[in-house]
Design brief:
The chain is α/β, with parallel strands linked by helices. Helix content is 36%, strand content 22%.
Length: 298
């Protein structure tokens, strides 16, 4: 082993995991990112929105936008997935000042839990009072169809990781976070009421997160369905866990882009998935835009 590398390894071993974590404090990194953003944006956002695959066009509805590239924010990860543009967009949506993440991060990109959820920490420190999350997913519930818009009621974490592992920052939240109501019941009720008023079909379902990036086998789809999942995807759960750690109310939507019924399975291409997400997005945009003033009044 080269001398410099050996010294570095020995130094880390001598410090121990707690000291290493302290020297690379995520709270410090988040604080530096927040200060950098606040030099560009003076207003405090009321709500944060995470835009999933094929759902990025909602950002185009934000009025008087101020765009901050992830490249220009200290410590902010970079999106590597097609359709994830990699920028924060601040502005007015539905009469409410919001910040939207146009591009998220996934475990299959090689990111650790703290990097996947870095944007949630930053948005909370910027002042958001609630978080709206969206994703594109596969449908496991035979009662769904491609293009179905679903309000997530609960989730199953099969990612093989948890973003809260390691040192706990007590000023953000407790070590052991209760997840009984991880998707806020009042926000879900409001979403269904608003969807009914708008004439938008909104189903409910349980989301299961898997590591990816491959799609699942027939046997895996069968297993996930029997576990109680209605939708399967590769995101959302880490962000929701961290939001709840920071006592941030969450409302989450899935767009079912393809049906994953093991006995009637068809090949799903990325282009097909994005096409269905794009077709459904106008309904989700209308719903979120109408919901925001109601959420802001809570």
């Amino acid at each position: 082993m080269p001398v410099k590398l050996e010294n570095h390894v020995n130094s880390m071993a001598a410090k121990g995991p707690g000291d290493v974590m302290q020297s690379e404090s995520i709270k410090t990194r988040v604080s530096e990112a927040v200060r950098s953003i606040q030099q560009r944006v003076s207003n405090q956002p009321v709500a944060g929105i995470i835009l999933g695959s094929g759902l990025a066009h909602l950002a185009g509805k934000i009025e008087n936008p101020v765009v901050v590239s992830y490249d220009d924010i200290p410590h902010f990860p970079q999106s590597t997935v097609e359709t994830h543009h990699g920028r924060l967009i601040f502005g007015m949506l539905g009469g409410v000042f919001v910040v939207a993440m146009q591009g998220r991060f996934h475990a299959y990109e090689g990111y650790s839990g703290d990097k996947i959820t870095f944007g949630v920490r930053v948005m909370k420190e910027l002042g958001i009072k609630s978080l709206i999350v969206s994703n594109a997913c596969g449908g496991l519930n035979p009662g769904f169809v491609a293009g179905e818009l679903v309000c997530i009621t609960d989730h199953i974490n099969l990612l093989g990781m948890n973003p809260l592992r390691g040192h706990n920052e007590e000023s953000w939240g407790p070590r052991f976070v209760d997840m009984k109501e991880c998707y806020d019941p009042a926000l879900r009720s409001m979403a269904h009421k608003t969807a009914l008023e708008l004439g938008i079909r909104l189903a409910s379902g349980v989301y299961v997160a898997v590591a990816g990036p491959n799609l699942e086998t027939r046997a895996e789809y069968r297993m996930l369905s029997r576990m109680g999942a209605d939708m399967v995807g590769m995101s959302t759960v880490p962000e929701v866990i961290v939001a709840r750690h920071m006592d941030l109310p969450v409302l989450a939507f899935s767009v079912v882009t393809d049906m994953c019924l093991p006995d009637n399975l068809h090949v799903a291409t990325f282009d097909d998935i994005i096409a269905v997400a794009n077709a459904t997005e106008p309904h989700l945009t209308r719903l979120i835009t109408s919901l925001l003033p109601r959420i802001a009044s809570l």
